[in-house]
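User: Sequence in, structure out. Go.
Assistant: Echoing your sequence, followed by the structure tokens.
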Amino acid sequence: MTMDELLRSHDPARAVPDDLVHSPRAAATLARVMATEVSARPPQRRRVARFALAGALAVTGVVAAAPILGTDEAAIATWDAEPRPATATETAENVRHCAELTRIGPAGGRPMVEVRGNWVMTYLTSATGEAQCLRSTVLTAEYPDGEGEAMSGPLLPAPAADALATIGVHKTSGGVASGTQFMVSGRVGSRVTAIVFDTQDMKVRATVQGGRFAAWWPQRKPASIAGRLLDNTGYNGSPNPKVTITLDNGKTITTNIKDYDVNQ
């Protein structure tokens, strides 16, 4: 068998008659498709996930799987639904660590650093990109810099005054010590004053500062299987919880976070 014959044997359209391919209707369809303008879409964000506790697995491309209905009371005990601002020392240390990890370059604007229990989330922006890092404050001999995860990508577009701009919820690769967490961040419209996520059978208040927002929560067992399914209804398997934003006039808007995803 010649190479040409071998390639033709794998052609899924080999059984289509030539007269059908060259028919006027087929030609018109091809012309219409070629003439259709391709709509522009925002670029997908480049994510850099580096989980220290799962580092050995990440090298081989294996992701630690968390149980669908797993309960992690230890993770809940080291986390707070209400964030607190970081101290000056915490801010300086975590900004340095996140910038080195993601190689974001010279930061621009005020960094956002929030603390929830034993974990710190950092949100940095530069002239051309942004980065988010989640890091444990519990330092051990095995993880002297704390375990955590980071991601980075291009700058998000500005949202409408009463909306958000985000890439949706990022599910961490998880691990034995800390379990799986969910991270979300992005830009807020000029009229947005508060953001609360209804997820994992919890109410999670995001930090809103300087035109940005950030929040994260650990995976836990919800009140019902239906609740868990609703919490994870989204695209490409990404969690899609309810989010309520409050505007400067007191009005609230509740929808799913995917409605603000710039990549949809």
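User: And one key feature?
Assistant: Confidence is low (pLDDT under 50) at residues 36-71.
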